From TrEMBL:
Transmembrane segments: 30-49, 55-75, 200-220, 226-244
Keywords: Membrane, Transmembrane, Transmembrane helix
Designated name of the protein: Uncharacterized protein
Record organism: Allokutzneria multivorans
Length: 354
């Protein structure tokens, strides 16, 4: 993968604006959720309901508000600073000297000690393996943004005093002979992506469960109005749930797909145009040349821009083990992962193999 542009402004990095807007939208959603919970609690008390009914709502509203404040302190302030820096500065390379938990020792013209605002162990392992990161900042408050190769989402951080009391984090080595799932970075990223894919059909699942409950209750009590409404909402929710499960079924077993074997590189060509949605994902299609030389079209449900950019820039992708009907694709030893479904029949497959 090519490094980010070191001339011009940092904002020229492709899809950087998508990641920033997605983070801003996520923060707004948390605040709106807290406001909705407070409004619901106030409504419950206004209509004269029992305190036992309103108190749990107020407790949940308080917890949501506390979480929103914590997220603003950790990420929200950084977003405001990063937006200004991206428009005014260029990316600069820095060497990774050491990783001490969430504290990084970086060196360019001087040594910087940076505390990551949010980081999980798989990401820290990926940073520790990297010989080089790219940085924007620090600003007058010490905020910096870091870019890790292959990953388009910038890492938020802040310059802090040196922390020699924090032990150096042991960085695991990537083993190219082991199954893809054995790598701590890959398996950790896979767990996060599996959780995200489940969230996409959770609303349909919740509506389906509530609708079934209302339908059964209405039929039991003889209240036909809610029962009649449920007879419409339940089938719609069921169809949406089944379609989402079918489309994202490969993501649910991503950990098993990574168990298939070591990564092996294949030629790949992404079908254009492909553009991510506001969250950085969109379904895509591509043509792969498998190890046996066969060209096969694949569907890439919930494709992220990290994988898309990897394919665009290298003309290749890596597959875990031997490809079956569904298999994992990505880049070895990194959080760049996706799921591919082979197109078994139809005009698209005939066109590719013609």
């Amino acid at each position: 993968m090519p490094p980010p542009p070191v001339t011009g402004t940092a904002s020229e990095l492709r899809y950087l604006d998508v990641t920033v807007r997605a983070s801003q939208r996520q923060l707004r959603t948390i605040w709106l959720s807290a406001a909705a919970m407070w409004s619901l609690g106030a409504f419950v008390f206004t209509v004269g309901a029992r305190k036992s009914a309103g108190m749990p709502i107020l407790v949940l509203a308080a917890l949501t508000t506390a979480f929103a404040v914590a997220q603003y302190m950790a990420v929200g302030r950084w977003l405001r600073a990063a937006t200004r820096m991206f428009a005014a500065e260029s990316w600069r390379p820095v060497a990774v000297r050491a990783v001490r938990g969430r504290f990084l020792e970086l060196e360019s013209d001087r040594v910087l000690h940076v505390r990551l605002a949010a980081a999980m162990d798989p990401l820290l392992q990926a940073v520790g393996r990297a010989e080089q990161l790219w940085i924007v900042g620090p600003d007058e408050c010490g905020w910096v943004a870091l870019h890790l190769a292959d990953v388009r989402t910038p890492l938020p951080g802040r310059v802090v005093p040196e922390r020699p009391d924090v032990p150096v984090t042991a960085i695991s080595a990537y083993d190219p002979q082991a199954p893809a799932s054995a790598d701590v970075v890959t398996s950790g990223a896979a767990r996060l992506l599996m959780r995200y894919s489940r969230q996409l059909y959770a609303p349909a699942k919740i509506v389906l469960a509530i609708g079934l409950g209302v339908l059964i209750s209405g039929l039991w009590t003889g209240n036909l109005v809610p029962a009649a409404v449920s007879t419409i909402t339940v089938p719609i929710a069921a169809v949406l749930f089944v379609r989402a499960r079918k489309r994202l079924g490969g993501w649910a077993k991503l950990d098993q797909l990574l168990d298939a074997g070591p990564w092996q590189r294949v030629q790949a060509e992404l079908d254009e145009p492909w553009q991510p949605n506001a969250r950085g994902f969109a379904d895509g299609t591509a043509t792969l040349t498998l190890p046996d030389g066969e060209r096969t079209p694949v569907r890439l449900p919930l494709l992220g821009f990290d994988v898309a950019e990897y394919v665009r820039n290298t003309g290749t992708v890596w597959i875990a083990g031997e490809p079956g009907a569904t298999f994992a694709v990505g880049a070895p030893g990194s959080p760049v992962i996706a799921v591919a479904d082979q197109v078994q029949s139809g005009p698209r497959r005939a066109q590719v193999q013609a």
